[in-house]
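Quick illustration, no need to memorize.
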Amino acid sequence: MARITVDHLRTMKLDKTPIVCLTAYDFSFATILDNVGIEVALVGDSLGMVVQGHSTTLPVTLDEIIYHCKCVSRACGRALVVADMPFGTFESSPQKAFDNAARLLGESGAHMVKMEGGEPIRDTVSFLADRGIPVCGHLGLMPQSVNMLGGFRVQGRTEAVAQQLVRDAEALDRAGLSLLVLEAIPAGLAEVVTRSVSPPTIGIGAGPGTDGQILILYDLLGIYSQKSPKFSKDFMQDAGSIAEAIKVYAEAVRNGTFPGPEHSF
């Protein structure tokens, strides 16, 4: 199977072919994802919560992301592997972000880095993109900003915040963004952003109008001990195996039955 590329994902957006994404943190689960045909495997700093047991993603380090990315990259012959840039690894300057991103891609085998933030990281996105590093953005509920946001809350409900989110997305697009995650925002706002930017949008709690969907793997399998968010779904309940549960999720995204109204804001 041919490797999924940034150009491939852009073509899927233009063709309105849903992009299926999942988080992955180790070789065995990533092998299943790749065999099922998931387009994007995200090694997210969510591992700080679902793997390490922290209450937020903030304690995750660059070395830890590199370790988990190495495991996932060994399994993924087709899926594009995206690696989260942990809190504190990209905010201070474009040069520091480049140094950390270059190390992350060089050591782990990942193909793209992901950074949370809007207009304030515009120059950093441009700096990396100009130097050959694809960047995935992340807007809406940004877990690394949980202390500023006052908790894990839906974003973009007011007109002012919604307008700023659109400006953020357009600024990142102009800077050379390759992919954009939209988390926990109203479905209508996600549709506006999706139409406003050239890179594909990947929704998680952002309704059905994005170019693709992503879930936390452990929420999809119902094995995370804490309460899962409203926008998630346990696909293991009616499945006979992990591979079958992931297949059902992928099919639901591709045929438009997930997310449903009960998973949207």
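The first helix runs from residue 6 to 15.
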